[in-house]
Amino acid sequence: MSVWAIVPVKPLSRAKSRLAGALPPEQRQYLATQMLLRTVRLLLPLSHIQGVLVISRDTQALAMVLGYTCGNDVTARDLQRQDGQWARAKGFDTFCPLGPWIETDLDPTQVEVTCLVNGAERQRGSTADLIFPVAQLIAYVTQAMTLEPGDVIMTGTPAGVGPLHAGDEVVVRISGIGELRNAVI
């Protein structure tokens, strides 16, 4: 695999079921498919959105954010390759653990994001390195869909996406927020 990556000209969009993060963090577990991957992301739960919302200016976008939390965006890569798209591969009920809480007083522009698997660091990055800043992500998503209070937008992920196996423990750490721990079964 090449070390060069293609930089997208616009954000990539994917959807997850609301049940993907439905269980309390300590009860969330992942079914280990043949090729289960994890990516760590900063999440933006939305608060006071009413009716149809299309945000055209980035400055407006951040006013809609309730706060920020940790998220583990799990993908069954084998199913993604088999299906040729993302819906089933990312759509399992426990494939988007969120938490431990929502931090309402956080500047999303320079937040450190780290992922450990069984205590070994696998991903580390900063939101300062995002290709698309948080406000731009919100503006982009709302051009295509109506968002409601409680909806979540996930940022990009640092390099280091990799496999998970039954028995693994995943820890997502985000500075200013805390830590999310999950087990793979």
How does this model look, in words?
- The chain has 185 residues and is α+β, with helices and mostly antiparallel strands.
- The protein has one domain: Fumarylacetoacetate hydrolase, domain 2 (Alpha-Beta Complex).
- Helices cover 13% and strands 30% of the residues.
- It contains four helices and twelve strands, in the order E-E-E-H-E-E-H-H-E-E-E-H-E-E-E-E.
- It has a five-stranded mixed sheet, with no helix packed on it. Strands 6-4-3-9 form a four-stranded antiparallel sheet, with helices on one face.
- Strand 11 and strand 12 form a beta hairpin.
- About 5% of the residues have low confidence.
Characterize this entry briefly.
With 185 residues, this protein is α+β, with helices and mostly antiparallel strands.
Short descriptors:
185 residues, alpha+beta, Fumarylacetoacetate hydrolase, domain 2, 5-stranded mixed sheet, 13% helix, globular
Q: How is the secondary structure organized here?
A:
Blueprint: E1 29-30, E2 36-38, E3 40-45, H1 58-61, E4 68-72, E5 75-76, H2 77-83, H3 87-90, E6 98-103, E7 112-117, E8 120-126, H4 134-142, E9 152-154, E10 162-164, E11 169-174, E12 178-184
Parallel strand pairs: 1-12
Antiparallel strand pairs: 2-5, 2-10, 3-4, 3-9, 4-6, 7-8, 7-11, 11-12
